Amino acid sequence: MTTTAITAEERSELFVAAAKAKETSYSPYSKFRVGAALLAEDGTIFKGCNVENASYGAAICAERTAFVKAVSEGQSKFRALAVTSDQTEFISPCGICR
After folding, report:
1. Residue 3 lies in a domain
2. Residue 19 within any structural domain of the chain
3. Which residues bind substrate (predicted)?
């Protein structure tokens, strides 16, 4: 498997897309908005946000939302993932996604 580093332009696009995705977060319980942007091998960017449910186990994280959207559109190879929140410090993908 070969990996290709992403360009500075792709990185910037991913950060912007993740920030835009965060704006659509549905997080009335935790108030923890998260956005993700997934770069497919062909250059397509898929955005995802976290979507909570009163039954916490039924919530879906931003990363999985982006992956589900990509896979449902026929994508299966990815190059990068950007994740953002309202936190000022570093965050990593959720436990399930790690």
Report:
1. no
2. yes
3. 50-56
Q: Is residue 12 part of a domain?
A: yes
- Rg from Cα positions in the chain: 13
Q: What is the CATH number of the domain that holds 79?
A: 3.40.140.10
Q: Is 56 annotated to bind ligand?
A: yes
| Residue 32, token pair as written in the block | 């923890």
Per the annotation, does 21 bind a ligand? no
User: How many CA atoms lie less than 13 Å away from 3 in the CB half-sphere?
Assistant: 6
- 54 annotated among ligand-binding-site residues: yes
Please indicate whether residue 73 is annotated as part of the active site.
Answer: no
Q: What is the pTM of this model?
A: 0.89
10, 13, 41, 63: the catalytic one is 63
The pLDDT of residue 36:
96
Tokens standing for residue 76: 């299966």
The tally of domains found in the chain comes to 1
